[in-house]
Specification:
The complex is a heterodimer.
Chain A: E1 3-5, E2 10-14, E3 19-21, E4 24-26, E5 32-38, E6 44-50, E7 56-58, E8 64-68, E9 73-78, E10 87-94, E11 103-104, E12 108-113
Parallel strand pairs in A: 2-12
Antiparallel strand pairs in A: 1-4, 3-9, 5-6, 5-10, 7-8, 8-9, 10-11, 10-12
Chain B: E1 4-7, E2 10-13, E3 19-25, E4 32-38, E5 44-51, E6 57-58, E7 67-73, E8 76-81, E9 90-97, E10 106-107, E11 111-115
Parallel strand pairs in B: 2-11
Antiparallel strand pairs in B: 1-3, 3-8, 4-5, 4-9, 5-6, 7-8, 9-10, 9-11
The chains are: A mainly beta, B mainly beta.
């Protein structure tokens, strides 16, 4: 069974500061990893994904994440926070090829301080 | 691209009624669709997985007779909450998968269900 852990249910950063949202996974097979963002009363929007290949992946809105197998991590970063980044962020993983079920982390609420 | 439409976005109804929620993939054919439930300030809980033309696969603890899922075509799946009660009040979200597991799921905007 796989699991996804997001450290920090709430993260606050100042506008213009670095955003770092942490995600660790445990899986017996190489997982596919995703970051999604959710705004209030809306569904989830894909920020980025990692399946194979380059371990540093770039997504929308200036976000990127790096897959580190040795650390079983897939942390999300953005160099400079914007007020519009305030939202709930979910890290998720599937069990690799042929296993489409997504396992979600518990989410991190990002607050941007003006 | 990859738009998923979920309808209705908000529904309020009396206890004992049945509510149907539709999930449509607008610009792609979805090989698999998923239904999730999300409680306030919590993560998404997978309820069931559905493939077109076959019976849905429910997660442990999800009542099949309470949450009826029909996946009639490659672009439409429906979730019917039968004889809804206040404890069924929640945010329900569907997602659709266009291909294999290395592709992302595309999510609808969710349906907020309130049972009085």
């Amino acid at each position: 069974a796989q699991s996804v852990t997001q450290l920090g249910s709430h993260v606050s950063v100042s506008e213009g500061a670095l955003v770092l949202l942490r995600c660790n996974y445990s899986s017996s097979v190489p997982p596919y990893l995703f970051w999604y963002v959710q705004y209030p009363n809306q569904g989830l929007q894909l920020l980025l994904k990692y399946t194979t290949g380059a371990t540093l992946v770039k997504g929308i809105n200036g976000f990127e994440a790096e897959f580190k197998k040795s650390e079983t991590s897939f942390h999300l970063t953005k160099p400079s926070a914007h007020m519009s980044d305030a939202a709930e962020y979910f890290c998720a993983a599937t069990g690799g090829f042929g296993n489409e079920k997504l396992t979600f982390g518990t989410g991190t609420r990002l607050t941007i301080i003006p | 691209g990859a738009v998923v439409s979920q309808h209705p976005s908000w529904v309020i109804c009396k206890s004992g009624t049945s509510v149907k929620i539709e999930c449509r993939s607008l610009d792609f054919q979805a090989t698999t669709m998923f239904w999730y439930r999300q409680f306030p300030k919590q993560s998404l809980m997978l309820m069931a997985t559905s493939n077109e033309g076959s019976k849905a696969t429910y997660e442990q603890g999800v009542e099949k007779d309470k949450f009826l899922i029909n996946h009639a075509s490659l672009t439409l799946s429906t979730l019917t909450v039968t004889s809804a009660h206040p404890e069924d009040s929640s945010f329900y979200i569907c997602s659709a998968l266009a291909g294999y597991s290395n592709q992302p799921q595309h999510f609808g905007d969710g349906t907020r269900l309130s049972i009085l």
